[in-house]
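From the pipeline queue, job 12 of 40. The input is one protein chain; the requested action is below.

Action: predict structure.
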Amino acid sequence: MEPLTDPFGRLHDYIRISVTDRCNLRCIYCMPAEGMQFQPQDEIMSYEEITAVVKALAPLGLSKVRLTGGEPLIRKDIEKLVSMIAAIPGIADISLTTNGLMLPGKAALLKKAGLSRVNISLDSLRQDRFAMITRGGEVAKVLKGIEAAEAAGLSPIKLNVVLMKGINDDEITDFISLTLNSPLNVRFIEYMPIGSASDAWRQTYLPLETVVEACNAAGWATEEADMPSGNGPSQNRRVVGALGTFGLIHPVSEHFCDNCNRLRLTADGHIKACLYWADEYNVRPLTGDPAAVQALFRTALGNKPHNHEMALALERKTQSHTPTLRRMSQIGG
């Protein structure tokens, strides 16, 4: 069958699937403090529906699946979904993005079910600051989750750090220090205007040359590093002699749209060919018809813009499409 390509010739072999819009944290860049409307459970795709979509896309070259949320581990028996996807011919890599709080009780089950690796969100190593960013979380529980992932053999383990000016930018060297004696990959991610392009976002946004400057100030020599297994656009480096690596993901200042290979499926069954734009296509009514699922994904890709233009939002310039109003927790990371 013809592979999944868009009008710009980009091959799409990777899908990020949100399994819930709910979370046991409420991070400041992901959800508002109040007024979040969660979807009723009957509007959330079942494991069977999700599996049907992946089965339909696998013959078109889909080989990589990432489960996201919200927080995917709050979805009951999530390891069953991992097992169902792992049984699909052609699926070579299954990963999961989590805040890590529930990993101590889930890591071994997920590994046994077929999960390859995890990305763990961790935006501060300081309890008071972590509690502020997450609105109540305990950083010690996340650190235990990292230990559980290591013990279960999930590898590589990537730590996602959304870098925010005036909030956690003074912890850059603390995070990189984690890589000196451990094979962790710390990934610094620019703050994106998903669901909001307000002045608060603009004031908090920080380009990632700050990370390089922090390394220089610490007297660390760095070198290019091999990409840890996965599908991300991270520019990876290591402190010379370190066991681990750190990566820079800058979707705003240096977008990586030219090499985009990602599709997204929201928890309520909408295809998003681009994270940022509002365009969506409801595939849930079609899950019993593989050919119809394939056709709708091709339609979504046929309308995928060349890039997301987040930099124009930063500069308050006119954009060519309509940005999404969904929050990150409603889309899936």
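Job complete. The two ends are 29 Å apart (CA to CA).
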